[in-house]
Amino acid sequence: MGLGSVALAWLLQEENLLATPASVPRSNQSFDLKPKPTHFAPRANAMISLFMHGGPSHIDLLDPKPELTKRSGEDYPGEI
User: Fold this and answer.
1) Which residues neighbour 73 within 8 Å (Cβ) at sequence distance 6 or greater?
2) In the prediction, which pLDDT does 74 show?
3) Tell me, what DSSP letter sits at residue 39?
4) Pick from 48, 47, 65: nearest CA to 56
5) What is the pLDDT of residues 50-67, one digit of tens each?
6) Among candidates 60, 78, 57, which has minimal Cα distance to 68?
7) Are 18 and 12 in contact (CB under 8 A)?
8) Phi and psi at residue 69, in whole multiples of 5°?
9) Residues 23, 27, 33, CA angle at the centre, nearest 5°?
């Protein structure tokens, strides 16, 4: 599924041999962008969105760390 499939699709399109599925609409479509009614009444009054570019990865934040729990509170001499 690399460059060969792109080349095949281009060659088929050049020869007008590409098939169009029946589910593809043949006319221009219009999309309604108005807000839709929700299933439930919203309860939140505000939202805090954090964009942490360059922040710690999900592995560092969410994976359990038993060694950290075991050693929590210990002082290591010579380390800051």
Assistant:
1) none
2) 63
3) S
4) 65
5) 877 887 777 788 888 888
6) 60
7) yes
8) -65, -40
9) 90
pLDDT tens digits for range 6-52? 888 888 888 878 777 777 777 787 888 898 899 999 888 998 888 77
For residue 3, the SS3 value is helix
Q: What is the pLDDT of residue 79?
A: 56
Q: Which amino acid, residue 52?
A: M
**Residue 39: what pLDDT?**
92
Q: Residue for token digits 């969105």?
A: 49
Distance from chain centroid for Cα 34: 24
Whole-number Cα distances in Å, 49 to 23, 42, 46, 61:
38, 17, 10, 17
Report the first-to-last Cα separation within the chain, whole angstroms: 51
